[in-house]
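Give me structure tokens for this 233-residue protein.
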Amino acid sequence: MSLLELRDVEARYGEIRALHGVSLTVADGDFVALLGANGAGKTTTLRAISGTVKTSGDVLLDGHKVFRRTPEGMARSGVAHVPEGRGTFTTLSVLDNLRLGAWVHGTASPRDLAHVFEFFPRLYERRTQQAGLLSGGEQQMLALGRAMMAKPRVLLLDEPSLGLAPLVAREIFHVLGQLHEGGTTIVVVEQNAMLALEHAQHAYVLETGRVVLGGEASDLRKNESVRRSYLGY
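Here you go.
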């Protein structure tokens, strides 16, 4: 069953056309990776879904067109977006950042907080610290934990491994794998194509704002052009 679908979505930044009729489908419970070089339109695709950029074309949830998309409206519909750069509130504590993630439900329950701390024990150890004092890896954990507090149906992540040590990046993707196993649908933009394709079920390759290739992640790992351009062998 299709949970999320884009049909001929286009987007502009002023005179610059960032997306040229992007169409893709994300099944309920899927783990999808968006691959491509810088400027390919991957980030804009996530923004089109979450309503943070104006678009033409259609975005559908559960088979129904979403009209008047806004970030608040999409969040209330179960779409959580973790942007590149993490977007944590640096002057607030770890605990307050997590509590803010639950705004769509009103308040943060102790049970939901405990669930995040099970995945990220270091956040519990640093729960009273200001977010700006955390390491890059810990801030990424916090950004993901805050998104988890919203109990999303669809989790969008933009470059979750950016700037992280390889071990920490794998830890983040291990958590994403656990969330996926728990039923969360995931769409991730990731420059580390090897890491993304190891965890994803399906993937799309974007070039200059267009989808040029799509299919099962296992098949894309074997694709010669993908291997040469993104996997380095």
